Fold this protein.
Amino acid sequence: MATDKQSAEKEITVEEKLSTLYQLQTMMTEIDKIKTLRGELPLEVQDLEDEIAGLETRLQNFQSEIKDFEQAVVEQKHKITESTGLIERYKTQLDNVRNNREFDNLSKEIEFQGLEIEFSEKKIREFGETINRKTQEIAELSERLDGRMADLVQKRNELEQIVSETKQDEERLREKVKKLETVIEPRLLTAFKRIRKGARNGLAVVYVQRGACGGCFNKIPPQKQLDIKLRKKVIVCEYCGRIMIDPELAGVED
């Protein structure tokens, strides 16, 4: 059983491995093009969603603060009512005082409650100003939020349109990629993915162009060009590390 497996692996030549890798590279390049077509839209949509979430949180906080200030105004008005009632009671008691000490005490209480009323009225004015300011901020924030929501709807529509136009192509390519990856030996596939990840343009397999690497365009020594044409071993560029194949294997004319 093991012998049959080994012989099956031996049947896959270096040329076939290189050809399969180049097919995989071609498909991954097509997927990259689809992603490029979408551009920065996914990131823009995410940024807008995050910004809107932040604006909504601020809006909720402002609304909560206004409710707290409104409650504080109610409490201060209640204190004014209490102080007014006390003043009326103390004034009535002034008519029945028996000595100067009682008169002085009642007068001080009336004065104190008057100061309490003035303090409460001052707090009510301050709370009112704060409420007005917060209300203005809410209006400005709501206007900004509406604008960002409109931007988000537009960006989402653009993204959905592009995704719908390219979804079938991408799914078809990804299915082919999965099938190809199953026939490439794991070590070679790992190397391919590592090179692709490090390459600026996502090219891990390139063909020789005018005696130079198709990835970094550095000249290739004649002997190495010959080795590439022979397709007997996997050869990488000594400058950029990309896997190199000859143009004919890539289906192009040198």
Remarks:
- The CA atoms of residues 19 and 249 lie 7 Å apart.
